[in-house]
Amino acid sequence: MAWFIVKRVLSIIPIILGVSIITFLMVHLLPVDPAEAYLRLSKIPISDEAVQLVRTELGLDQPLYTQYLNWLSGAIRLDFGSSYITKNPVWEEMMNYLPATLELTFSSIILAFLISLPIGIFSALYKDRLFDHFSRTLSFVGAATPSFCLGFLFIYIFSLKLGYFPVSGRGGLVHLILPSLTLALASVAVYTRMLRGSTIDELHQPYVLYARARGIREKIIIGKHVLKNAITPLITTMGMHIGHKLSGSIIVENVFAWPGMGRYFVNALSARDYPVILCYVVLVTTIIIICNLLIDIFHAVIDPRVRKKGVY
User: Where, by residue number, does the polypeptide cross the bilayer (predicted)?
Assistant: First the structure.
């Protein structure tokens, strides 16, 4: 098991390195000169002399591969430079915004799981009946509606009209409900259909027939045996959806003025704050890879065949 984990950890290093190279190249291929962006954000008149001084100060006059190696050596030490806007260290600012984004991301995944679990199970148990048709229709509507539309709709109904929740900002649980629900509903359709399909497959397995023949109660068969096997693909999908939630949180954070990394990244992107853009992409990529690694380890723990055959 230890060797399995070591191999998986080592395998993520070239992935992160490749993402950093691609992101670095894409940022430097943008039509806006980083030196001009720095001067503009610093409210310094742009001139040829000023641009040249800034390029020398930021190391932009060096070959591209030298710039990348210098940036990589700093990134390894968690030094991503300073923001062009605030002049503060990017890593420190990112760590200030990270808790809010993780709070929104994981609360939405938990909420989507809690909503999908009963709907998926009952849809499988009452296949092709009224509840099954209704849940599938509701899931399709939720999946087809853009997150920003749901967000504005929730704000209009539950905040402006009913006054149950605040319009924006981050505070207690009451501030978290609407953003989490907005982000969660996009995944409810996927989770529900997956759990419904896997539950139906498990209900047709021979062990269910044998359990019923032995007189075991249906609730015990469903809760103790069927659900345990049916929920495994759902957990895998939830882990894979971490990246989707992190990217989706960009829209939701801006709709609800949630002070997270997504909102910080959008402001940096519009201002061409290159150090922030690079740090955000690498950090989010690393979080996604780590979450996928944890899902792989979870599978290896519950199924020895995974680590024996090296499936993951």
Answer: 12-30, 104-126, 138-160, 172-191, 277-302
Query: Do 16 and 282 meet the contact criterion of CB atoms below 8 Å apart?
Result: yes
Tokens of 279: 């740090």
Higher pLDDT, 2 or 28: 28
Q: How many residues does the chain have?
A: 312
What predicted TM-score, i.e. pTM, was given to this entire model? 0.78
Q: Which residues pair with 89 in a beta bridge?
A: 82
270-310 confidence digits (pLDDT tens): 778 888 888 988 888 888 888 777 777 776 676 665 555 55
Question: What is the C-alpha end-to-end distance of the chain, expressed in Å?
Answer: 13
CATH number of 97-309: 1.10.3720.10
The upper half-sphere exposure of residue 271, i.e. CA atoms within 13 Å in the direction of its Cβ, equals 20
Compute the distance between CA of residue 82 and CA of residue 210 in angstroms, rounded to an integer: 65
Give the residue among 262, 261, 265 at the shortest CA–CA distance from 276: 265
pLDDT tens digits, 236-256: 777 777 777 777 678 888 888
Distance CA 8, CA 24 (A): 25
